[in-house]
Amino acid sequence: MASTWCKNMSFPEPQIIESHILAALLTYEPHTEYAPYMGADGRVYFKVYGAFQETIDRLYAGESAPLLEFMANLKKLRDIIFTMKFDKKFHRVKAQRFG
C-alpha cells in the first residue's frame, strides 16, 4: 500500500535504496513504507514502496529538513541493519514492512 502522498503514482515493484537516502525520505515523508532487504553482496538495502521521486527532488533541491529527525531516522535504520547482519533469529522471521 502506497503512502497517502503518492496514491496516484506507485511503482509496480518496490525500489531498492540505501539507508541514508531512506533516512532523508522518512524525514520529509514519515509514512513512507519500506522493508529491509539483504543483497547478494551481504549489504542491507531497503525496498521502498510507492513513488518517491518528488521527495528525492525536494532533497536534491536543497529543501531544509530537521537534522535531529534525520539522525533519529538513520539510527533506526542502522539498528535494523545491525539486527539483520548479526542476529541469527532475524533471518527466520518473515520480512516485515515498516512505515
Percentage of residues assigned to helices: 25-40%
Number of domains: 1
Spatial extent as radius of gyration: 14 Å
| Quaternary status | single chain
The CA-CA distance between the termini, in Å, is: 10 Å
Q: Mean pLDDT across all residues, rounded?
A: 81
How much β-strand is present in the residues? 15-25%
The SS-based structural class is alpha+beta
**Shape annotation:** globular
Q: How many separate helices?
A: 3
Order of helices and strands: EHEEHH
Unreliable stretches covering 5 or more consecutive residues = 1-11
Largest beta sheet: what is the strand line-up? 1-3-2
Query: Describe the biggest sheet?
Result: 3 strands, antiparallel
DSSP strand count: 3
In short:
By secondary structure, the chain is α+β, with helices and mostly antiparallel strands. The chain has helices at 19-28, 53-60, 67-86, and strands spanning 15-17, 33-38, 44-49.
Report on this structure.
This protein is an alpha+beta fold and 99 residues long. It has one domain. It has 3 helices and 3 strands; from the N terminus they run βαββαα. A 3-stranded antiparallel sheet has the order 1-3-2. A hairpin with a 5-residue loop joins β2 and β3. α1 crosses α2 and α1 crosses α3.
